[in-house]
Amino acid sequence: MGEILDSKKKLPGKDGTAKFIIFLIISSILVGIFSLFMAGVASIRNDIAYDNYESVSNIYTPLEQSAPTLNALAEDSDFLFGRDIQIESYTLQKYVENTYLKATSGNVVINADFVKKGLVYQPSYETQFYATYTLVNTLDEPSIISFDFPFPVNTASSEISNAKLIVDGVEVENAKANISYYQEDYYGDYYYEQTDGLRWEGEVPANSEVLVEVSYDTVGLSLFRYEGIENTQGSQDFNFTVTINGTRAYDVNQGLSVDNREFGDKSVTLTWEKPDLYSRPLIDVEVGDKLNPSTQVSRVYLTMMPIYVIFMLIMHYLTKKFGKGVQIFDLFLISVLFVIYFPLVHYLSSFTVDPTIDVFAGLSSVATFSMPLYGAFFVSWALIGGLMYYFLGRTAGFKFATKFGIPTFVLFIGFFPLVVTVPEYSMLLVLIGFTAFTAIIIQLRVKMMDN
After folding, report:
1. Any transmembrane segments, and where (predicted)?
2. pLDDT exceeds 50 at position 156
3. What 3-state class would DSSP assign to 420?
4. Element housing 374 (H / E)
């Protein structure tokens, strides 16, 4: 390898081609080893990101809102005792059996507030929950029931604020209570759990209805799940809206199908409109992550060697055919720049200015800054591509570097590595790139025939 790099000869002729082939084989093996090593580094960073996710979940947790329930009052209920009413248990049970849910309407606003832990943004968010429940009494006498609304089942140690329970426009005071709710286990069986929540004990007028409103604010992580209450007597009108601000990325994991989607600049609104719904409503929405540099760029490392081989073959051919020719050592320097480009993208995409560190502590104008993935690609390409252009211009001529070098740099250290980080469209974009590359080859071939 050292003898090849020390060669002062250009690369025309059989001898130059043989040296180039030997150089390409050796350098490709080294690039392949380096790419696997860096992919391993990215994998370790992914494991660290998972640990950080678990750490963040001690404060921000996936929100799982269980259904409210309609229950019979206990015979020693404070509501009955306060009114000096004595009602037998079978009558209390009759009330709840003839009072049911007519309609549910919900509106949940999720404001993505990504928390950076380590080098990765975790999909945390703030949310405002609001829902109304229309309860109907089919008896010819007032029905006395208990409306129990549990807070999200996994937020016992997390924050709940601005919680309100309003019945027919009147806020219920001292509504906080310990609520029993159904929880489903791994085998699909239900069992009772206890959590904090809101409770209303009161009358639903004969052959009439009441409107119960519930609202609260909290924080969550990654997932919002709502399992509603089912009308035991028939169907209900179910209308629910989930608005995600701060990202357009989301996924509906299971449950009811979405009836309408509206996309904003950095938001998405999902709407479920289910008149006469007989089944138990379920909504399960996952808030999309920000791009994880370790995950995204690790795909680039796995394509590094094949891109390098094609890139060097093209550079060798173009400089030999249209340029002044280059030495093996020149190709070695271009290879070094090529190899540096990938980890430079990797670590630039993780670059963050933290205003809390000592060097910025006295500068109130310094705000948190994080380099976006595509910004990192642009900066890396401009730096490495600029150095390649300058070096190629000095060795093979600036006319050649401008006419042939820049398009090659755009495709092979810009376009092809970048599209690998977009998994949903990577193959389509790769095909577009190869089509553009083929068009360039056709143009070169036509020009050679004309000459």
Report:
1. 20-42, 300-319, 331-353, 373-392, 404-422, 428-446
2. no
3. coil
4. helix 373-396
- Alpha carbons 109 and 285: distance in angstroms, whole number: 12
Question: Which two three-digit tokens encode residue 26?
Answer: 């050796």
pLDDT above 80 (res 233) = no
Cα–Cα distance for residue pair 209/356, rounded to 1 Å: 55
- What is the Cα–Cα distance from 434 to 317, expressed in whole angstroms? 18
Residue-wise pLDDT tens digits, 421-446: 776 667 777 788 778 778 777 877 77
> 146: exposed, middle or buried (C-beta count within 10 Å: 0-12, 13-18, 19+)?
buried
Q: Bridge partners of 436? A: none
**For residue 275, with 0-12 CB atoms within 10 Å meaning exposed, 13-18 middle and 19 or more buried, which class applies?**
exposed
d(C-alpha 262, C-alpha 269), whole Å: 5
* 191 contact partners, CB below 8 Å, separation of at least 6: 182, 183, 185
Percent of the chain residues topping a pLDDT of 90? 20
| 285/113 Cα distance (integer angstroms) | 16
pLDDT at position 291, please?
61
Q: Which residues, including other chains, have CB under 8 Å from residue 50's CB and lie 6 or more apart?
A: none
354: tokens are 């933290």
- What would the two tokens of residue 135 be? 């309860």
Distance CA 84, CA 77 (A): 10
**Three-state DSSP state, 350:** coil
CA dihedral defined by 308, 312, 314, 316, rounded to 10 degrees? 180
Measured CA to CA, the distance from residue 248 to residue 202 in angstroms comes to 42
Edge-to-edge strand ranges of the sheet holding 160-167: 170-171, 160-167, 209-221, 124-137, 99-112, 236-245, 267-277, 260-263
Rounded Cα distance, 219 and 74, in Å: 34
pLDDT tens across 365-414, in order?
545 566 777 788 888 899 999 999 999 888 888 888 888 888 888 888 88
